[in-house]
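May I ask you to comment on the folded chain given beneath this request?
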Amino acid sequence: MEKKVGIIGSGISGLLACKYILSKGYTPAVFESQSGVGGVWVNTFQTTKLQTPKSYFQFSDFPWPSSVKEDWPDHSQVLDYIESYARHFDLVGHIKFNSRVAGIEFEGAADEELQAWELWGGNGDPFGPEGKWTITVENTQTLSTEVYLVDFVILCVGRFSDVPNIPVFPPGKGPEVFQGNVIHSMDYSAIDFQTAAQLIKGKRITIVGNMKSGLDIAMEAATANGVEYPCRMLYKTKHWSLPDYQPWGIPLLYLYFNRFSELLIHKPGEGFLLSLLATILSPLRWVFSRIVESHIKRKLSLDKFGMVPEHSFFKEISSCFITTMPKGFYDSVEKGSIILKKASEFSFCKEGIMVDDESAVLETDLVILATGFKGDKKLKDMFVSPAFQDCIFGSSTASIPLYRQCIHPRIPQLAVIGFSESISNIHTSEMRCWWLAELLDGTFKLPSIKEMEKEGEKWDKYMKRYSKEHYRRSCISILHIWYNDQLCKDIGVNPKRKKGFFAELFQPYGPLDYNVS
């Protein structure tokens, strides 16, 4: 009998899921709320560029076109590349555009029976004998609603879109008392470039947040207004933003993305010898981190601007907080067109913003909140069932309980792709889609629910050890080869993809190493 797979989202993860599902002969139906593919790359800032070198941001079986010479393509080149991938593999015909998923609901066993199961789905199979998912979809143009019935659901909704993280303020101290305008970076990216330029031109702008979105918008504001109307940026934490991927001429990939670098890390489920080796080699983590930190400090003159972070670069990369610094950012700071100000707390007043306990008002016309997104709420709200809403994220004091970062042991016939992070999300999503397609095709079976939960506890311990307070981000960047090894072993393919001992140990691993076409 034909098996139908519902895929929610046609960003990178959704397209990959569609492609790998088709390769196994299943019938995918992709639901996309926007009018085109590309996910977060559909709406960007004018100055947005790729965060990682394009050699690390590519599909394993679809290289970048030779016409793209830059190592860091801009937003239009990235979107063209993604759209070309969708056309090349005939994925567009399986996508229902302008189709917003209002909710998904499992039709099958009752909640009490689900909790009593020892195997995922009751029998360990990805397709249950009776269970189905209903997907309620609203057409964003006609506002009509349609319900689809599928055998399996893949959630590819991402965590950096749709649900903005808006700070909460005490009564009388929020945006409602401010006479200017307050928008989120999501709103700024949603308008066309000309309208965005008009919005910021000739205005006193305050940006809240200093990660990638905040940095890009600040540069656009500084370019538009110069020192006449300097852009003020409020930040809580200083970050190690990379000026390039060549610290002191050493490719960053050789410091953090080969097997040798992972020998320095304590791994989930490691044996005694690997644990001992990680302990012995741990001082090298400090050395590698210092190499990168000293390069960033020198290249960006962080001491001069008082912007040296208190934490290590190793913690930054372990938490997937790595960003690339826009070219000329600190030149703008030195000229005075960007003003940096540390602010643990802030509130609004009629004329602008009040910072911490200071009495002076930061007079402002426009406030842009570059405060991120609530990816957890977005994923949670997909479910109609309160029980599934509660269990998808587990305890608030633990990392997200997804086996192989894909499968929740207590939610049958469903996978999540693209939620946990890595240095190259396109590569990680492709590995997971390959793994998932083989699971659906019966190449291997999942262990028992208890075994999967125990595995999740090991990863939780790892994430808390290295990501510290940011463990809920489920970042695997410093252990992505070890993670890929687990997927390869499940599938039954050789996880060692290099030729020769030294190449296997020291050469960086990337998307092309896993090309199986």
Observations:
- The first helix runs from residue 12 to 23.
